[in-house]
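ARCHIVE CARD
CATEGORY: sequence design from structure
SOURCE FIELD: tokenized fold
FIELD CONTENT:
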């Protein structure tokens, strides 16, 4: 374990959550853990995990042997205590404790206020998705809701901004179900509208034409399965890629079917796609209705279908917000900045 950092006396300042440090600065909590090796995993290499918690909560964490002391604002210190205990529980369960798990615990703790759940409840057990190369767990409360929906419904809509894990989590479950033989194949599709060209005029095979549009799927699958295994499964027909137009006339049974960028479907395309669902299959439709690229006057099939189907038994709609963005922290800030500008523009137009 890296050497413990000395306790510093600092002038009052605003922490990153906006709470004022001052009178409560000297509030302290002390924790003791049995397994030093697991505690080292919680602390991270060169105490990187502790530094991440300190930066986000505006507290100071000091390690001495198998004890941890937390100094700072009372509310934030107590939150840090909960997070450290949960990370230790995760380490004891055999799961890794890296930057993304710390980030998840920080996000989940905020979302679980006034509930009996803890981050460890949501990051292990039933929420965990096991793939050959890695274990995937939710990193926000809404991601946990989404994973549960994917596991228990035949048709799920994931609606929200980029970076919220809609495609990544669905791909993880698709791989898990394929490897465990719960489905016979994975089918990946999306509408091709960005290039403004007909696929027939693009060079290469069908897969080569569509591949750039399905990069997010392949990035996730290569990470979870390995590129060679992905190629092998494609050759065997266990992983199939196709533009949405090629779905017409088919019935897709015993498959995990994913439609990405669904906000760019027309109402006719969406109805056609939904009616492809066959026995033993499940379907995941994801998109961001604030990023529609259809021609002016063409209604989004995703907007339309949510008006028609939301609330029906067996169908679940999970809505994400910028608070669920789990990419680089700047992505969340960028999404918030664009949303704020749009809100201000609407207010000015309303005036």
């Amino acid at each position: 374990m890296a050497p413990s950092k000395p306790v510093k006396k600092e002038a009052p300042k605003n922490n990153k959550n906006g709470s004022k440090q001052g009178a409560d600065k000297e509030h302290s909590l002390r924790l003791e853990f049995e397994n030093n090796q697991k505690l080292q995993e919680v602390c991270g290499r060169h105490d990187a995990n502790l530094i991440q918690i300190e930066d986000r909560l505006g507290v100071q964490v000091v390690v001495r042997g198998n004890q941890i002391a937390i100094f700072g604002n009372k509310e934030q210190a107590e939150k840090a205590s909960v997070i450290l205990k949960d990370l230790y529980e995760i380490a004891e369960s055999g799961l890794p404790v890296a930057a993304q798990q710390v980030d998840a615990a920080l996000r989940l703790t905020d979302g679980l206020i006034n509930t009996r759940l803890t981050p460890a409840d949501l990051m292990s057990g039933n929420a965990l998705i096991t793939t050959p190369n890695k274990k995937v767990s939710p990193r926000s409360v809404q991601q946990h809701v989404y994973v549960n929906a994917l596991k228990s419904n035949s048709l799920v809509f994931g609606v929200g901004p980029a970076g919220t894990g809609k495609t990544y989590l669905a791909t993880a479950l698709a791989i898990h179900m394929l490897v465990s033989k719960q489905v016979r194949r994975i089918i990946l599709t999306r509408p091709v509208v960005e290039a403004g060209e007909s696929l027939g005029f693009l060079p290469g095979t069908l897969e080569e034409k569509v591949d750039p549009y399905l990069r997010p799927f392949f990035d996730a699958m290569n990470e979870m399965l390995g590129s060679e295994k992905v190629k092998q499964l494609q050759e065997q027909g266990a992983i199939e890629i196709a533009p949405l137009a090629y779905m017409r006339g088919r019935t897709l049974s015993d498959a995990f079917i994913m439609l990405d960028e669904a906000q760019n479907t027309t109402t006719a395309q969406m109805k056609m796609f939904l009616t492809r669902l066959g026995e033993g299959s499940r379907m995941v439709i994801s998109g961001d209705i604030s990023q529609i690229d259809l021609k002016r006057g063409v209604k989004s099939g995703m907007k339309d279908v949510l008006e028609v189907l939301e609330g029906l038994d067996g169908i679940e709609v999970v809505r994400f917000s910028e608070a669920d963005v789990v990419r680089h922290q700047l992505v969340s800030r960028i999404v918030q900045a664009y949303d704020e500008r749009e809100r201000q523009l609407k207010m000015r137009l309303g005036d």
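CARD ANNOTATION: Confidence is low (pLDDT under 50) at residues 1-24, 194-199. Residues 253 and 279 are 5 Å apart (CA to CA).
SHELF: design records, drawer C
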